[in-house]
Amino acid sequence: MASKPAVSVSISNLYPGCENVSVRSRSMMFEPSLTKGVLEVFSPVTTALSSVDDLATRAIEIQNSNINGVGDFSVWEFSGNTVYHCCYDYFVANDPTAIHLILFSLEEPYEMQLSQATYWLNTLKALTPPQHNIAFGGRLQNPLKVVLVGTHADVASLIRGPGGEFCYAKEKPLLKELRNRFGLDLQLSERLFVMDTGASNSKDIKLLRSHLLELRNTILSTCNPMSGLMERLVATLPSWRKLTGPNQLMSWQQFLCDVQEHINPLVSEDHLRGVAQQLHSMGEINLMQSETVQDVVLLDPRWLCSGVLARLLSMDTPKAIHHYRGRYRVEEIQALAPESDVEELLQVLDAMDICARDLTNPGMVDVPALIKTNGLHRSWTEEEEDHDVLVYGGVRLVPAEHLTPFPCGLFHKLQVNLCRWSHQHHTGDDAVDEPPDGDIRLWTNGVKVSQGGAEAMILLVNHGQGVEIQVRGHESERAKCYTLLDTMVTISESLLSSTLPGLLPARYYLSPQQLQEQHGPIMVYQPKDFLRAQTQGESSLSNTMGGYRESFSSILAFGCAEVYNHSRQGRDIHISQVSLLARRKLCRLLDPPDALGKDWCLLAMNLGLTQLVAKHSSNLSTTPTNESPATNTDPSPSTSPTAELLKDWSVRPDSTVGVLMGKLRELGRRDAADFLLKTSPVFRVQVEGVVGGGRAGLGGIRPHL
């Protein structure tokens, strides 16, 4: 049994009921709305599934509480066990009326403190969807509010200042580093709050409470006051929860009808949606939306978070053999939630990408978060006699901006999506407790699928910092190999954009020859390698690890001329293919006025868009240049001139990545050109020109909540 870290007395005094939460590294979120709010606590500490702690938080525990001197809150406490993280994206950052606290222990080395804070800040940033209308400087109109808290100051033997508060020597470099990385994406508080773990009435605690109260009051000042309808709904919800039955789920239309029938027959749907959003912010209900489960109202979040998810994903679940593969019988799911309608429950869990129903065997359900089988299939088998006639290729998806792991739980969701894809595209007569033979195999941090003579392995690599997709097949099936790789990459990138809409991924390519030789480490080619080679008129790249060159065709298309000849590469790809997040970053770089004129204005003239200069120049004198969200409170920021420039320029057929990159270098903006070089797409296929290629079979991908 794992030992339990010491609990901070001061943090326990901040709100009651948190005595079973480690404060080594975690994040809390206060969501004040009207008279209440939500406090969320979660930790990045990875706990082995075999480690059981009777006092540990299971899934998400919710309680109402009062923070002394601040106000009433609904406290959401998230388990640090990563098995539960596959559901956190629906609750962690789904409301703008929030204050997030990221806590880390000052006992840890500085590098660990920076790593832990970066992980959580990157998670919050990744969960924030981008705005389609990009504001000046790429600013967000309502960035999440974040407070950094260093704990165990007394244990770390920090000295006190003249006012009695702790002084941390590395506070300024830590805040500077984090602000440089996230200051334009999140509203970071101006200081690091350093906590004394043994003094609940210390000045440090009082400063933190005062800051929380200030933030809370600011948020409440922008919220609508509690209406009579809301007061009646808050009073009525407890009785509705009792009448709803075993599942605390209700369709939006039924919720609307009940409100009109029992509370106010004149209430409109639009007005009720606003009230429901406020109830959502208060933690009274939770609104869940999906194209498969339309507008579901979760009447009691505790039922799902503290009940169903805690039992389903618990490490105490019986350890039958098939459970090590993450597969359950529907009857076992029913036993974990005996009072629930299991079919209705599975629809919601399926829409949340927590489980996947096996269409070839409807009595079985895949729950990848519970897989305990280790990497038995992390490399290709070597039993094929025709090994030399196989072709290989691969892609690695990584976060483009910050070298940090993907948020925990992402790969479990990817496994769910791949299970769903496999179930929808294949049939089999396998045994009840076995996955379809040859179609899909799952293990911890890995998946293996096959289709049409090609097979793929999808792996979580580099300590969670990359998702790697390797594909191989017979050399006579090169187009099918490309199709399978394209399908797997598309599923992965679609999941990233829906689950982590604020995370910008980059696509790297793996050396096909080294994959065939099965020798590591594998050479990884980045977008900049292809674009630089194109600029020099080359169509191959140097593998410095292997001592040879590899052609674009072999790296990008398995050497298939049918695919490669109907594609565009790097510099020739149209600017409209550059992602919204990449455009937003360019706006941050080019919008602020430059002393030498090397900004959007001169770029517009170089691109022949002089009409935009007069249109937007009048806004420059009143628009902040490069302020962080913490200091810039303009409620209606002006439109980004760089975004308008790219929008107008993209209507031209000759507006390519290569042209823009050249203009940026002529302008002397190497920073913007290098960023474009780093994140631009490398390869685009005109699907209609490829027989059997392109994105075949993608019709089975399910939308996400």
From TrEMBL:
SUPFAM superfamilies: DEATH domain
Occurrences of domain Roc (ranges): 1-219
Residue ranges of the region described as Disordered: 618-643
CDD domains: Death_DAPK1 (cd08782)
Protein name: Death-associated protein kinase 1
GO biological process: inflammatory response
Domain of life of the organism encoding this protein: Eukaryota
Organism annotation: Umbra pygmaea
Low complexity bias spans: 628-642
Domain Death: 594-680
Pfam families hit by this protein: Death (PF00531)
PROSITE patterns the UniProt entry points to: DEATH_DOMAIN, ROC
Gene Ontology MF terms: nucleotide binding
Keywords per UniProt: Inflammatory response, Nucleotide-binding, Repeat
Bias (Polar residues) ranges: 618-627
